[in-house]
Design a protein that fits this description.
The chain is an alpha/beta fold. Helix content is 46%, strand content 13%. It contains 16 helices and 15 strands. Strands 7, 8, 9, 10, 11, 12 and 13 form a seven-stranded mixed β-sheet that branches. It has a six-stranded mixed β-sheet with strand order 1-2-4-3-5-6, with helices on both faces. Helix 9 (360-394) runs antiparallel to helix 10 (399-419). The structure holds adenosine-5'-diphosphate and magnesium ion.
Amino acid sequence: MTYLLNDPTKFADELAEGFVAVHRDKIYAVDGGVIRLHKAKPGQVVLMIGGGSGHYPAFGGFVGQGLAHGAAMGNVFASPSAQQICNVAQVVDAGGGILFCYGNYAGDVLNFNQAQQRLRAMGIDVRSVVVTDDIASASLAEKHKRRGIAGTLPVFKAAAVAADAGKSLDEVFRIATEANERVRTLGVAFSGCTLPGASEPLFEVASGKMEIGMGIHGEPGISRMDAPSADGLAEILVNRLLDETPSMIEDRRGARIGVILNGLGAVKYEELFVVYRKIDQLLSGHGLTIVEPVVDELITSFDMAGISLTLFWMSDELEKTWLAAADTPAFHRGNVVHSNENKADSLQLGNQHRLKTGSAISQAAATVVLAVLEAAYAAIDVKQEELGRLDAIAGDGDHGIGMQRGLAAAVAAAKEALDAKAGAGTLLTVSGDAWSNRAGGTSGALWGVILRNIGSALGDEAKPDVTAIADGITAALRGVTDLGKAQLGDKTLVDVLHPLSVSMDSSASRNLSIAAAWNAAADVADAAAQATENLLPKIGRARPHAEKSIGTPDPGAVSMALIVRSIAIALKKHCAPFEN
Ligand code: ADP
Ligand code: MG
């Protein structure tokens, strides 16, 4: 467990602040993460990585010469938001395109994909390589579903070296993809971890037992056994990994491999060396040549007791990238020559534009939208704990806090936008950005999409009407399903958003007033949220524990119904400027 902290909700921000203060000679803090202090060459490809906090040195610790150009750093165990990723990406962009490289987790995939879409829309070329090295998390046939753990390092290194050598984005993508095809990791755990400020461990392993293949956030492993000796564990890890020698390795004898023995948090270096001693003997005994092994903490999980072993089966090309010099806060190899000439000086976000001023009628509507957001915040605030409990049944328990954090940020952004005389559309757009930026997680990203789509439909000129709102909700539904891929019946907020959209369309065709339309929508949303009780989750974090959730409605569906109801009530009071 963590002994030293102030306010648990500020833990991730405060650790990032201290981390940057230690490494001012190598990195620079930007909104959403960190970037290399030394700038990339104009026109070159840059490597951008990222993930949740709580896994140090992953991911900020791998930013620096010879490794990543930038990293987005999320909250504790939560992916960075698309906005954070975009912010960091825009600053590191050197004009030659960006490779996103990160471990395969649903929240990270969702947010990086969304950031990729947005950056492409700005004319920045972005491609992604999602690392899938954890052999315990899916079969080889479904390698694309595997999680990413310590094998991320050789993939990052391959991409970074190729990018700094001036290769094209296609080439950097190809090399990183090949590195991912050739890396395999297996981890074991003897205990779970306790998040900062929490009173209970997030997950547990029975005493004296070892879980093989447990994920770094407590994702279930493939088997459980009595904890072996150090040598016994080395044998288990080596044998299982050799069983999955990549098919392109024709002859294992004489093959050259990079080896990483990673401590997950509570295992001492001395213990790692005892285990490594046997790993070295076993691999050499199989005729393999070990090239520059790494025994260190590279991707951790607070006080989780466990280790992972990674084998990186190198080609000549990849061996050069593995051996190349690097100098980052947490990873050093060889000698990196720094030149002071390319030190970052003026790091400003290129697109910090002023908000567009709305028409008088749209500014009036924006006042109502702010009131609506405040009402939604109040409705979620009182139900925060209950939403957390619903999410804890099959998910990770953060839905209440996430929604609260997101809505608080949305309200604050809306107030600023109103002061800047924004119309209703812009106000909703910046509120959506603020929401997804602060909330993180899956629902944060999706609510950002919802607000931005409704904002686009309302615009900053016209008086909002039910048709524009209905169009906005239809677009929001499309945006949410494009991004999250959930279908009706998957037990997500889509099960409320879809009938809500149908209801709004019907109200528009019947020429109902805005207040009447939201009133009808609130009844539909309540019933739809309640009906998710009997569904089985097929997507998102709740999926692995699907059956546990039968009889409990989906938290995201419930919070959406609460918000729709609060809008209906607020509009009864405030909708005068909208109606004729
Ligand atoms: P996380 O799942 O990242 O912890 P939250 O707990 O804040 O995020 O939100 C969980 C809710 O998000 C779920 O109850 C569900 O309604 C919604 N959700 C999760 N995945 C998806 C998806 N792919 N599409 C639509 N909604 C989703
Ligand atoms: Mg959750």
